Amino acid sequence: MTLTSDVHASSRGSTSLAISWDASRGNTGGHLYKQLPSGINDTVHVRYYVKYPAGGGYRHTGVWMGGYNPPLSWPVPEAGVKPRGDDRFIAAAEQNTLTSRFDHYNYWVDMRRAVDGHYWGNLLLNNPDVQAKPDHWTCVEHMVKLNNPVTASNGEHAIWIDGVKVSHVGRGFPAGMWRGGAFTQGAGEMFEGIRWRSDVRLRVNWIWLQTYAPAESHQSTGTIGFDDVVAATAYIGCLSPLAAQEVR
After folding, report:
1. In sequence order, what are the residues at sequence separation of 6 or more whose Cβ sits closer than 8 angstroms to the Cβ of residue 198?
2. What is the pTM of this model?
3. Which CATH number covers residue 30?
4. pLDDT tens, residue by residue, 197-246
């Protein structure tokens, strides 16, 4: 990871974070993990700016958030394993070159099994038209609302791109269809909601910036940029040029 002078037009600062990978050297990227010691028991928003490269292959990117019980000082995603409900959950908003779109990538106790028989993160939008423009700073915000009580499936997850809400899933919305671990929004049955946890001790207690580009997914190098990451308990929104000018 390095700090660079490449910042978006409305940035409040003079540097951004660049996370690179290089397949020829076995470098799969990097990550920056922030623990929230007391945890949050209701709603969390994370807003960030991200710049994806025009070329190269990458697997998992963006800013993820979630919970571990007990809390952990480092990320342990346990890819392919379904959570028990009292141990962990993951809510991600990312662009992935395997799916060629921007989408959710979520693990929770009632998640669906993928068509290959594994429990990979569930995709909940499945719209190829939702893309982050390459070589361009994109404003992303996503929101997690935990299920309360823990027996209910009234948890939610929403994603905004450049200030436009592109997806919002919860109990009874939207309509769509499941195929394996992918939910395609549109015509069909109403989404059943999300039971993020079965134990009240499991809360939102970490935020994770990451670029993960394993060698088998590409034969190239690349860099993903991150800027102006903010976490809050209410909607944040994108920065305006006026706001940046006032700060300076």
Report:
1. 84, 85, 86, 109, 150, 151
2. 0.94
3. 2.60.120.200
4. 999 999 999 999 999 988 665 568 899 999 999 999 999 999 987 444 44
